[in-house]
């Protein structure tokens, strides 16, 4: 369980492995997948909704499950990672368009 790793303080290593695992094992709607994301955010002690490049690296494919607020707050840092996601939710696509139209990215 991720909670066990959170308690030992070695949770980031656990989530590095989760982030590299086969994302298709858990459907996007699976409660376990959402739980993994929540525990990863808690483990990384992410204040608010701003994800650093280092945090995105640890999250791996879990970045694909981040909501629009995280995408907007991270000002383009997640775009490359999100490009690897098989599909995006409409909310995520809208957030990506907002980031690109802001002109504050190397992509926009």
UniProtKB/TrEMBL annotation:
Give the source's domain of life in one word.
Answer: Eukaryota
Name a biological process GO annotation.
cell-matrix adhesion
The record's Gene Ontology cellular component field reads: cell surface; membrane
InterPro entries given in the database record: Mesothelin (IPR010335), Stereocilin-rel (IPR026664)
Asked if Membrane is a keyword of the record, the answer is yes
* Keywords associated with the record: Cell adhesion, Glycoprotein, Membrane, Signal
Q: What is its main location?
A: membrane
Q: Pfam families per the record?
A: Mesothelin
- Report the locations given in the UniProt record: Membrane
The record, for PANTHER family, names: MESOTHELIN, STEREOCILIN RELATED
Protein family per UniProt: Belongs to the mesothelin family.
Q: What is the name of the protein in this document? A: MSLN protein
* Originating species: Hippolais icterina (icterine warbler)
